[in-house]
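To: structure desk
From: M.T.
Subject: fold request, one chain
Message: Could you run this one when you get a chance? Sequence is below, nothing fancy, just the single chain.
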Amino acid sequence: MKLKYLSFIFFMVLLFSCKSVPDDLIMFKDLTQGRNLTGTFVNTENSKAVILPGNVLRIVVSSGNVMDAKTYDQFNLLPITPSTPAVSASSGASGEMEFQTYTVDEKGEIDFPKFGKIKVQGLTHFDLEALLLEKLKPHMSDPVVRVSITQNYVKVLGEVEEPGLIEIENRHNYSVVDAIAEAGGITAVGDRKRVKLIREENGRLESVILDLTSSDIFTSPYYYLKQNDILVIDMNSTRRKDAQYGTSDNYKLAVISTIVGALSSTLTIIFLLLDRVSK
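Reply: Done. Structure tokens follow.
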């Protein structure tokens, strides 16, 4: 009878000596367990890139009517032109005309030629194009407006292959997954379960923890990123232990764990055989 209990004890030791893959290493772990996403709606909050104070806008006005050339010139800032051919060659400038940009002031306005101050904060680039088209129609027969939001970044830091700034410009539906993909993906030691998002909202900072091991991220109000958001991916639990105890110590523990597991397995077999013989 004692042999039976000993066999059970050694079996449990063997079971718990086996290491499983940590949860913070697998993205969307619940999908591997058969969760069905059919009918799930992605949270669309912040899905549109809107203009904010401090954004830099490139606005080019032209016309479908070649006769309007002199007219639309007055609605554009002066183009940037190198002072000498040598400067052009050294800077790698192309033959295309490059226009000056507008910086959105703290009131959310820009100073547009002929029209003066225009409120642009909260508009998408499509909204601003439509607004300027309406203002230009009395002055031109076939106005064309192109707006680009430049120097418009999110930051991805920590355990990704290529940390740094990512320019999102006019892109709508720019998500956490998009940013991580553009940063080259999370490294093997990155923590997918506790991704930190830091956001400035109305002059105040807020932070949340996002769990990329769960498909619930798609329905999170933080799934889509805003300009100036910061994503931070820390080391996962396994890597943090390495840093705390040292790689050599973890190696020793791994070796000891392997030896204990092997001994447990061997002793379990021996006791099972002895138990069978005793019967």
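Reply (cont.): The longest helix spans residues 247-278. Let me know if you need anything else for the meeting.
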